[in-house]
C-alpha cells in the first residue's frame, strides 16, 4: 500500500512556487518511483498564465514520459512542458496558415 503524500502548507503562492522550483527533480523522481510501483493514477496539470488558468488531465504515463524527456534534455519538467506546448501551438498555427492557402 502506498504511503500518503504529506500535505504542504505555504504562506504565499510565491513560497509555493519557490518550493516547486527547488524540489522539481525530487518530486519528479518520487512520481516516477510511484508510477513504477503502480501507485499513480490520472494526473491533473494546472497551467496558469497572466490572466487565465487551464487544467489539463494527463495520464500518468504521459507525465512520466515528459519527466524522462526533460531530464534527457537537461531542462526542468515545467520548462519542458512549456516548450512542448509552444511547439504544438506554432505547428498548429503553421498548419492552419498552410491550409488557408
Q: Brief description of this entry?
A:
The chain contains four helices and two strands, in the order H-H-E-E-H-H. The protein is mainly alpha-helical and 101 residues long.
What report would you give on this structure?
The protein is mainly alpha-helical and 101 residues long. It has one domain (13-100). The protein contains 4 helices and 2 strands; from the N terminus they run ααββαα. The protein has helices at 13-22, 24-36, 60-73, 77-100, and strands at residues 43-48, 53-58. Strands 1-2 form a two-stranded antiparallel sheet. A hairpin with a 4-residue loop joins β1 and β2. The longest helix has 24 residues, at 77-100. The N and C termini lie far apart (57 Å). The relative contact order is 0.10. The model has no long low-confidence stretch (mean pLDDT 78).
Order of strands, main sheet, comes to 1-2
Q: Could you tell me how far the N terminus lies from the C terminus, measured between alpha carbons in angstroms? A: 57 Å
Shape: globular
Share of helix among residues?
55-70%
The total beta strand count reads: 2
Number of domains: 1
H/E element string? Answer: HHEEHH
Number of continuous helical runs: 4
Low-confidence stretches: none
Structural class: mainly alpha
Largest sheet: 2 strands, antiparallel
Please indicate the percent range of residues in DSSP E strands (runs of 2 or more).
Answer: 5-15%
Instruction: Give the integer mean of the pLDDT values.
Output: 78
Alpha carbon gyration radius: 16 Å
Task: Chart the SSEs and their pairings.
Layout: H1 13-22, H2 24-36, E1 43-48, E2 53-58, H3 60-73, H4 77-100
Antiparallel strand pairs: 1-2
Helix pairs in contact: 2-3, 3-4
